[in-house]
Amino acid sequence: MSKKRSGGGLSPTQQAAKFLGVSVLAGAVMAGIALPAAGALGLAAKGSVESFDELPANLKTPPLSQRTTILDAAGGTIATVYSRDRTVVDLKDISPYMQNAIVAIEDSRFYQHGAVDLKGVLRALNKNAQSGGVAQGASTLTQQLVKNVAVEEAGDDPTKVAEATQQTIGRKIRELKYAIQLEEELGKKKILENYLNITFFGQQAYGVEAAAQRYFSKHAKDLDLEQSALLAGIVQSPSRYDPVNDEAEATKRRNTVLQRMAEVGDVSQAEADKAKEQPLGLKVSKPKNGCITAVKGAGFFCDYVREVFLTDPVFGKTKEARAKVWNQGGLTIRTTMDPQAQRSVQRSIKEHVYQDDDVATAATIVQPGTGKILAMGQSRPYGINNKKNETTLNLSVNADMGGGAGYQPGSTFKPIVAAAAIEGGMPATKIYPSPYKMDYPAPVQQCNGGVWNEKGVPVTNENTSEVGPYDMKTATAKSVNTYYVSLISDIGICPVTEMAAKMGVQRADGRKIQQAPSIALGTQEMSPLTMANAYATFASRGMYCTPVAIESITQRVGEKSKSLRIPKSTCSRAMSENTADTINTLLKGVVEDGTGSEAGLGGGRASAGKTGTTDERYAAWFVGYTPNMSGAVWVGDPAHKRQMKNITIGGVYNQKVFGGKVPGPIWRDMMSGALEGKDAPSFNLVHIPDMPKSEPPADGDDDNDNGDTGGNDNGGNDNGGNDGGDDGNTTFPTPSFSIPENFIQGTTNGNGNGNGGGGGRG
User: Pairing state of beta strands 68-71 and 331-335?
Assistant: First the structure.
């Protein structure tokens, strides 16, 4: 009589006997297999059979995870991404050698038996009884397929994977019942096809097509005898028989498969012996997965597309649901990226800012009126090698989409203040005294019903020669700080923050824009995508459209493809056409004869824009547009440590960097290439009368921002500073504040309670 072990469990022989009884009886009941032993085993297995009958009749087969291909707007491939590298192929596209090899080594009686191979069970039972353990399995290809389906359903959850592969009687019973279902519904050929597509072959390759590509750089249909035998041998233990890391062990295993193929009659012994003498003949293709493989420098755009998918509820109600669809793959995502614009962005960036420079640049182009993101690039490439200045931080976008905490935009924020004023009825001919230096007027109305009422907070213009009075046209062209401080103090803070919200302008870190007049000078951190899309509102005559990166998505599920819903751009009127036309007129003057003159496109193409440089020159901007494209360029140190003084960028020495001199030419060159061959529409301009008096002479520098940081933005005071002039013999006034040593991009703890201060250098 068999004895139980001391722990109360069954011995290996008893477990095997129980499994045999359950398998035989279940097979007899479910598949109509008549066996004399069934009656004798019936009573012992009765309880197990009842549990067997209670199992769900249908195996829920998840769609196999596959590669996802991301395309540009013209249909060109940007990148291939996947959770599991798999390309599903039909059986006719798999080499007959491969089909025979996997059957020979894994289940040589596959075409003779049903869902369960009773001879195989008896053979395994005898072997295991002799060894006192589990030395040999008896699973058919169909049962292995069922197990692989369970593993596929478990995904990357280690707990679920363990449950799907645990060696228990319960799992074997479930496996058997589902195997019977598959045999009845699919037939042998389809089962073999599914098995070869789902099985893991090591080296990140799932399915035979991916395996053929990985090890031999060819399609599964082209595998020869030796190659097929090698792949078939890997399946039993992908790590042990990995030909890349252990050629000798893999060769032995391949030869075992070849011998088995000869024994079952798939090939002659002579053919097998000849094949055994051949080298493995590997031609390994490295795994190419993820946005790091993106072409045209589009790694960050690729990453942005992934972030959109994982965060937008249109792709699933929960983060987990969206991740499941993404990891399942099989997606073909056509994006909005214009290949011409992307090439132009990368070409301009490469020419003006080097990868190993102390500072970086990021640039984005969007399409006015649609919100389509046409291009996105930066000088520090997508990667994880810090020594080569690689990064996975997308410098063009907000923190919640894979970016950092943003960068102060300086005077590029001033047109938003002007738009708020004009929309509220302020004429573009409005004149303010605009002295070189003044205190912020106080009190200033806030949105919450309160007032900003800090006394004695100074602000200066860039140069001592910049003394008003100025009207809006001249003050915008020269980027006069004291004019814009007077303007926001006059209309109040609330109209400005409301206009910013209508234009999609928000802090990159997700916090609210502060209720202080210093926001007029660009003290709140923004991303290039935010600024490019905001200025697109001016280009589209007042219509703001939310940014979008995806045109369409199709998903392959099994042998069918279906279209997925995608997020659509929503457009709304942010300001009247007249207000937008007025801003376009003002900013056209900036590139014609103002601080942005070096960014002008020329060639009869209308353009408009604004420069910006922050205090101590930690960042410099140019944001500009034509009626059909809007782009933003930022240059600076992402860590907010390197001031752009006495610095070489792109091989060119700069005593001081400002918006018109470095970002401006980058913008000019990238937009010129992006727009080549495109229509050149004109703006709808308005007449803005000149001031009745002559303007004061310009002084040396065409960059007129001052003290953009507006203070430390660390929950304290925005007590601005002024960095003096840019060229010639201009003096440098001493800033009235200092930047804390721990002020690092992406970790600033500003709470939006700044109290005014410095200005934005144009």
Answer: parallel
